[in-house]
From TrEMBL:
Keywords: Cytoplasm, DNA-binding, Sigma factor, Stress response, Transcription, Transcription regulation. GO terms for molecular function: DNA binding; sigma factor activity. Signal peptide: none annotated. GO terms for biological process: DNA-templated transcription initiation. It comes from mine drainage metagenome. Belongs to the sigma-70 factor family. NCBIfam families: PRK06596.1, rpoH_proteo, sigma70-ECF. Residues 78-91, 254-280 form the RNA polymerase sigma-70 domain. This is RNA polymerase sigma factor RpoH.
Length: 290
C-alpha cells in the first residue's frame, strides 16, 4: 500500500486542487484487456508500476465521487485524499478473474472510505456504530429533499413520521439523528461575536474550588487533626480504646464485644464511651480556643 501511495499525484490544501484535477485528467482510461493484464501483474508479482497505472487511471472516479460529499462541509481535498485511500485498498484486493471491472469494485471501497471520513469528522461524539445508524445519517438529507422538507431546526412530528416510514426506521431514531446532524461541534476558541475579543471558553464557569478555598480547607483539616490529637491525650488507655473502637473505626465493635474484652457489662461500656466522648469534646474546644 505504501508503494502504491508513493506513485499517486500529491493533493495539497494550499491551492493545489485545480492543478491536481488537471493532472489526473492526463492519465489514460484503460481498456478492459489492459486493466486485466495490469491487475494480474499486481496480483501475481506485486508489480508496483502496474498498480500505479490501475490507481491513476481511476483517480477521476474518486474526484467525481468525492464531489458528491462536498455538502457535508468538509474540505474537498481531504475528501479526495480519503477516497484515494479507498481506491488503493480496492486495487490491492481486486481479483480480475471475477469478471467485473475495477471501477465497479472500487466504487464500494471509495464510498466506504468517504463515509468513514465524514462520520469521523462530523463530530467528536460518535453518531452511531451500527450500519443502520450510518445509513440513516447519509440518507436523511436525501429523503428530506425528496419529501420537500426544509433543512435546519427540529422536524415537525408529521415529517418525522414520513421520514421514518420512508426509511423503515423508528421515528425516535429519525428525531435523534436530525438533532445530532444539526448540532455540529463548535470550537471553544471561536469568538463570541465578530466585534468582541472574547472566546467561548471565556464564558465557561469553572465549578472547581479556587486556590484560596483549597488552601483554607487544607489548613482547617490540619487544625482539626491537631485539636483531635490534643483532645485524645486527656483519655486514659481504656477510654481511648473504647472511643477508638466505637467512634473512629469504619467497622466499629459492638458494646457486647468490648464488654467481653474488658470483663464489664454492655451498659458499662456505653457509659465509658459517652464519658470519653464528652471529655474529648471539652478538650478539643479548649485546644481550639487556645
Amino acid at each position: 500500500m505504501t508503494a502504491i501511495n508513493a506513485t499517486v499525484p500529491v493533493l495539497t490544501a494550499d491551492g493545489g486542487l485545480v492543478k491536481y484535477l488537471r493532472e489526473i485528467r492526463a492519465f489514460p482510461v484503460l481498456s478492459q484487456e489492459q486493466e486485466y493484464m495490469l491487475a494480474k501483474r499486481w496480483q501475481q508479482h506485486e508489480d508496483v508500476e502496474a498498480a500505479h497505472q490501475l490507481v491513476t487511471s481511476h483517480l477521476r472516479l474518486v474526484a467525481k465521487m468525492a464531489l458528491g460529499f462536498r455538502h457535508y462541509g468538509l474540505p474537498l481535498p481531504d475528501l479526495i485524499s480519503e477516497g484515494n485511500l479507498g481506491l488503493m485498498r480496492a486495487v490491492k484486493k481486486f481479483d480480475p478473474d471475477k469478471g467485473f471491472r475495477l471501477a465497479t469494485y472500487a466504487m464500494w471501497w471509495i464510498k466506504a472510505a468517504l463515509h468513514e471520513y465524514v462520520l469521523s469528522s462530523w463530530s467528536m461524539v460518535r453518531l452511531g456504530t451500527l450500519s443502520a445508524h450510518k445509513k440513516l445519517f447519509f440518507n436523511l438529507r436525501k429523503v428530506k429533499s425528496k419529501l420537500q422538507i426544509m433543512e435546519g431546526g427540529d422536524l415537525k412530528e408529521q415529517d418525522v413520521e414520513r421520514i421514518a416510514v420512508e426509511l423503515s426506521v423508528p421515528a425516535s431514531e429519525v428525531r435523534l439523528m436530525n438533532q445530532r446532524i444539526a448540532a455540529r461541534d463548535s470550537s471553544l476558541n471561536a469568538p463570541v461575536a465578530a466585534d468582541i475579543a472574547m472566546e467561548r471558553q471565556d464564558l465557561l464557569v469553572d465549578e472547581s474550588p479556587d486556590q484560596e478555598t483549597l488552601l483554607g480547607e487544607r489548613e482547617e483539616r490540619h487544625l482539626q487533626n491537631r485539636w483531635l490529637a490534643e483532645g485524645l491525650k486527656v483519655l486514659d488507655r481504656r477510654e481511648l480504646d473504647i472511643l477508638t473502637e466505637r467512634r473512629l473505626r469504619s467497622d466499629p465493635m459492638t458494646l457486647e464485644e468490648l464488654g467481653v474484652r474488658y470483663g464489664i457489662s454492655r451498659e458499662r461500656v456505653r457509659q465509658l464511651e459517652n464519658r470519653a466522648f464528652t471529655k474529648l469534646q471539652s478538650a478539643v474546644k479548649a485546644a481550639a480556643a487556645a
